[in-house]
Amino acid sequence: MSLILTFLGKGGIARSKVAIAAAKLLASQGKRVLLAGLAEPVLPILLETTLSADPQEIAPNLQAVQLPASVLLERNWEELKKLEAQYLRTPIFKEVYGQELVALPGMDSALALNAIREYDASGKYDAIIYDGTGDSFTLRLLGLPESLSWYVRRFRQLFVNSDLGKTISESPLIQPLITSFFNVNWTADNFAQPTNQVNDFLDKGKAALADPKRVAAFLVTTNDPIEVAVARYLWGSAQQVSLTVGGVIQIADQTTADLTAEFAPLAVNVVPDVKQGNWQPLIDALPNFAEQTSKVPKPIEIDVHNRQVRLFLPGFDKKQVKLTQVGPEVTVEAGDQRRNIFLPPALTGRPVTGAKFQNNYLIISF
Amino acid sequence: MSLILTFLGKGGIARSKVAIAAAKLLASQGKRVLLAGLAEPVLPILLETTLSADPQEIAPNLQAVQLPASVLLERNWEELKKLEAQYLRTPIFKEVYGQELVALPGMDSALALNAIREYDASGKYDAIIYDGTGDSFTLRLLGLPESLSWYVRRFRQLFVNSDLGKTISESPLIQPLITSFFNVNWTADNFAQPTNQVNDFLDKGKAALADPKRVAAFLVTTNDPIEVAVARYLWGSAQQVSLTVGGVIQIADQTTADLTAEFAPLAVNVVPDVKQGNWQPLIDALPNFAEQTSKVPKPIEIDVHNRQVRLFLPGFDKKQVKLTQVGPEVTVEAGDQRRNIFLPPALTGRPVTGAKFQNNYLIISF
Question: Residue B121 belongs to a domain with what CATH number?
Fold first, then answer.
């Protein structure tokens, strides 16, 4: 199990420099580090080396890899074919080749997350530094286990309870037909079988994301007011996918404003803006990521005894946070991120009796 | 029908400034302009106004809108429910509410593209300026009609030819069963019915994208070598989704290098880096977008007579371009974008007899 660390903020190249310096810092401490980046040429230029979709050693303890969707899609296609052959008696995918597959929106994120998951599970790395887009697309990527598991729990139950689901599970005519197409006995109960595999995968992802020792982000900003505003926006938005933000990396400018108030209670670490290749001053100024991350508020705390849920939502004011309860779960909307709160059995299905927003916390009572 | 204009490049805030100035320029020429941006707070700060998911007038002839996925998802959900009710006899979606839906990776792009399509079709705007992520995610978004239509044509035929497809279309037992679940007569022929609607939508999207008078992008860069490299990378990548890049906007720096050679045959337009609010010097330095776009090479030219396809692929060298023919179509891979070339009947299914890469062109002979 690795520490997965990423950086959020508006300034693209500065953010990649911080990611490289962070990777070098952890490697110098004896950790086995993987630096994983996008397909665009930023990392290769900054590192002065060509990179590919296979990790390569660029320094002692330090490997680097790019995550191009087209290559990852090709590699994952064979796995998907095996899954299809397992569940479907007459597979269709076998006649389509990985080399002709085109990436659709969202695939980049799903494939990159899957690659990170596999590198994490390989046991080869103590830390994975992900140099992604650093914006809300990175949050969608890391939030995928959280958001997808909502779709699974919501639509599976609806399907099982629907006329369609009932007809399939009860009809003596349809069962043998389904068996002739699928390799599974698809009753409502056994409908759980394929989804359980998915659920296990999603639960592991959610557990990792909720654990600041496993996954954390740091904000990167200069004192440009727009960059600061975007960093604050991403800080709040990150909480909505249960991503812990451990601190702020402030790139020094001609004038370096004090940003402590904007990001309290996070530590603001001022670092120099270094030229490519001259990494040491930046490395020396970086904080202890794990230590700072351990001190910040958790995105969500559920207090069953007092029937309260406390959500840490910094960077937003009261008007920007919306609470609804239209479906079976409580929905919180902030920063273009919607979150359905999966409650423990003691609180499930209870109506919300009160809610207040104060000191960056949304406190919901049941 | 509007001109849809977007900007690609690494420098986030500078790119948004150019988008704003472009919108103001076109509005000052009497065009009805919509400026559409991301949910993050960059545009509201630069424009010194709050924005929402509904267009609002911010100057004469100029409206601005944000495209937050959560709001767009909610609005589109009702449409999806209607579609489901049309094709499925026992709808499941009706019990799920738009307000609880969570955005998954890719939805942001699909929803933003759909919103742009609707604003375009509304007839209310002569130009739509899309201030998106400006990176490969924007290319996936604009390339969606191209990439999705490949999936439709590839998998539809495989399904129709498969045992599963044949059993469904030929079995006297399964037809009535399907009719009891679906409102369509799902034979192999009629399988075309729902996909034809999709195809029509995709064909219109592809036609718009392939027409530089309808959709165009401009590159935005400083003379920072990494920004230049990323701009060149995006220039080549854009061709792979048939997006015409009309020219370069170079933000002046302390030293302004001559980038003409890097981007030939595009025009390089040097503009000043303006402070927020002081838009006029930037507006005055912007080019005539439509005129410059009309002069650049087309992403693809198909010469049936000489059995040749010419792809304009600038920004890549020979080693970065890959040509394969594993499936029924010819696949070209460059810049993490894969493109399957949909050929006219005279060339369909022919084997590639030769290929060469020279002067930024990949020339394929059949």
Answer: 3.40.50.300
Residues A304 and A282 in one domain: no
Same domain, B131 and B181: no
B contacts of A13 (beta carbons < 8 Å): 10, 224, 226-227
**What count of CB pairs under 8 Å joins A to B?**
212
> At B142, is the secondary structure helix, strand, or coil?
helix
Integer Cα distance of A22 and B92 in angstroms:
48
Is B175 found in the same domain as B125?
A: no
Tell me if residue A134 falls in helix, strand or coil.
coil
- The answer to whether the Cβ–Cβ distance between B136 and A70 falls below 8 Å is no
Do A262 and A358 share a structural domain? no
Question: Chain B contacts of A228, Cβ < 8 Å?
Answer: none
d(CA B228, CA B315): 10
Which domain range does residue A321 map to? 300-365
The band of B183, judged by pLDDT with boundaries at 50, 70 and 90, is low
Could you tell me if B183 and B101 lie in one domain? no
Amino acid at residue number B184 = V
- Cβ contact B136–A39 (<8 Å): yes
Two structure tokens written together for A124: 């080869």
Q: How far apart are CA B98 and CA B118, in angstroms?
A: 19
The answer for A 142-181 residues in CB contact with B (under 8 A) is 144, 147-148, 150-151, 154-155, 158-159, 162-164, 167, 173-174, 177, 181
CATH classification of the domain holding A328: 2.60.40.790
Selected for mutation to probe chain B from A10, A40, A220 (highest B CB count within 10 Å) is A40
Question: How many CA atoms, within 13 angstroms, populate the side-chain half-sphere of residue A351?
Answer: 1
Q: How many domains are there within chain A?
A: 3
Residue of chain B nearest A235, judged by CA positions: B40
pLDDT tens profile B338-364: 999 988 888 888 889 999 998 999 999
- Write the single-letter amino acid at A213: K
Question: Which of B184, B201, B218 is a domain's end point?
Answer: B201
Q: Which of residues 92-121 of B touch A (CB under 8 A)?
A: 92, 95-97, 99-110
CA B55 from chain centre, in angstroms, equals 21
Are B121 and B21 part of one and the same domain? yes
pLDDT digits (tens, 9 = 90+) for B78-131: 888 887 777 777 777 888 888 888 888 889 998 999 999 999 999 999 999 999
* Per-residue confidence band for A38, with pLDDT thresholds at 50, 70 and 90: very high
- The whole-angstrom distance between residue A291's C-alpha and the CA centroid of its chain comes to 21
Regarding whether B137 and B190 lie in a shared domain, the answer is no
Residues B306 and B327 in one domain: yes
The amino acid present at B106, given as its one-letter code, is G
The answer to whether the CB atoms of A327 and B45 lie below 8 A apart is no
Residue finishing a domain among A133, A166, A201: A201
Under a CB-based contact definition with an 8 Å cutoff, are residues B259 and B248 in contact?
yes
DSSP state of A40: S
Q: Note whether A158 contacts B327, CB cutoff 8 Å.
A: no
B162/chain A closest Cα distance in angstroms = 7
Residue A24 makes CB contacts below 8 A (sequence gap 6+) with A59, A62, A279, A283
> Under a CB-based contact definition with an 8 Å cutoff, are residues B137 and A132 in contact?
no
B308-320, pLDDT tens digit by residue? 999 999 999 899 9
User: Are the beta carbons of A11 and B12 separated by less than 8 Å?
Assistant: yes
Asked whether the beta carbons of residue A147 and residue B329 sit closer than 8 angstroms, the reply is no
Cβ-based neighbours of B243, under 8 Å, separated by 6 or more: B139, B142, B143, B209, B215, B216, B217, B299
